[in-house]
């Protein structure tokens, strides 16, 4: 397949972060304030994962979508905090399911406090996000977020069904991405527009942008598991393989390989054999699977950029374009 052109240039990540800095400071303050609990363990676990850093991409999308369509205020900040709480709860649960011990370069909560604490604090964050939703007193907001959270849960179960399953194909893989990653991106961008009073056309444009960006981001993330520097990535390379997850680079390699190599790769997926990483990398390189996967990510990034066409030209829209480029060019 011909590699698509990268999305139109926008500002780089530092400029985007600078544009959203005031909003992000307010969002971070709100997150920390609303994390507070009388239960000490909740505070410890929540502080551990929140203080781990990360780029806060999902709440930033809420703020930028709001700025792209109007003014941003406290309502946007609360919606952004809700999105981040939902995301953080999924991280806590994912690390238990995946038996992960490293995230963002530090020990996972389950590695420190155990699986039970991680699951229960994840539940706390889900419930806190719904408390924040109710405070906004908006049925459209609650409907969108409830539907989104339900889709994420479906995605978690779908992914579980595909673990150690070498028959997972690209369509099934994309179905998991849509539910586990893309729907939360899309909810955030639509909510930002809703809070700014944007019309349905603008809301839909930003929803489509968020959905396509989510696909681009996750595919690029899965490429990094086979190509990045472990220290920059902040997790162990080959974790997807060890967990029995066939992501796009491996799915493509299996589809392109000769019969003997395909049979070997199937066995590796079934066993979650991280020790076979050199064999897998050789097959992925021979098939051009990293290039294929990067091209697919660029397709989604370009589609995300195209979805912004109906919106007026302004700094926030330019920043959203820049995030489409960042999603597929990052190294961590």
TrEMBL record:
Its cofactor is Mg(2+). Belongs to the FPP/GGPP synthase family. Transmembrane segments: none annotated. Its EC number is 2.5.1.90. Keywords: Magnesium, Metal-binding, Transferase. Supplies octaprenyl diphosphate, the precursor for the side chain of the isoprenoid quinones ubiquinone and menaquinone. GO terms for molecular function: all-trans-octaprenyl-diphosphate synthase activity; metal ion binding. This is Octaprenyl diphosphate synthase. GO terms for biological process: isoprenoid biosynthetic process. The keyword Metal-binding applies. It catalyses: 5 isopentenyl diphosphate + (2E,6E)-farnesyl diphosphate = all-trans-octaprenyl diphosphate + 5 diphosphate. Signal peptide: none annotated.
């Amino acid at each position: 397949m011909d590699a698509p052109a990268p999305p139109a240039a926008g500002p780089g990540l530092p400029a985007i972060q600078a544009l959203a800095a005031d909003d992000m400071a307010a969002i971070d303050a709100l997150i920390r304030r609303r994390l507070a609990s009388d239960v000490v363990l909740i505070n410890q676990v929540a502080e551990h994962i929140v203080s781990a850093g990360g780029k806060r991409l999902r709440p930033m999308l809420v703020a930028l979508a709001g700025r792209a369509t109007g003014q941003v205020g406290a309502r946007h900040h609360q919606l952004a905090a809700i999105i981040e709480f939902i995301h953080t709860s999924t991280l806590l649960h994912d690390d238990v399911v995946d038996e992960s011990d490293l995230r963002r370069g530090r020990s996972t909560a389950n590695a420190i406090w155990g699986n039970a604490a991680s699951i229960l604090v994840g539940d706390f964050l889900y419930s806190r996000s719904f408390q924040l939703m109710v405070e906004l007193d908006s049925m459209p907001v609650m409907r969108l977020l409830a539907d989104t959270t339900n889709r994420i849960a479906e995605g978690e179960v779908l992914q579980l069904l595909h673990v150690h399953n070498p028959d997972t194909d690209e369509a099934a893989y994309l179905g998991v991405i849509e539910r586990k990653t893309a729907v939360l991106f899309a909810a955030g961008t639509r909510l930002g527009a809703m809070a700014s009073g944007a019309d349905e056309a603008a809301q839909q444009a930003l929803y489509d942008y968020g959905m396509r960006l989510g696909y681009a981001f996750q595919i690029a993330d899965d490429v990094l598991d086979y190509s990045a520097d472990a220290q920059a990535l902040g997790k162990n390379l080959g974790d997807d393989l060890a967990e029995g997850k066939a992501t796009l680079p491996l799915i493509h390699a299996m589809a392109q390989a000769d019969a003997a190599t395909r049979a070997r790769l199937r066995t590796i997926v079934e066993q979650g054999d991280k020790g076979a990483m050199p064999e897998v990398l050789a097959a992925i390189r021979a098939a051009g699977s990293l290039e294929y996967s990067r091209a697919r990510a660029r397709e989604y990034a370009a589609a995300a950029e195209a979805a912004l066409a109906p919106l007026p030209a302004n700094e926030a829209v330019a920043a959203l374009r820049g995030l489409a480029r960042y999603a597929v060019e990052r190294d961590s």
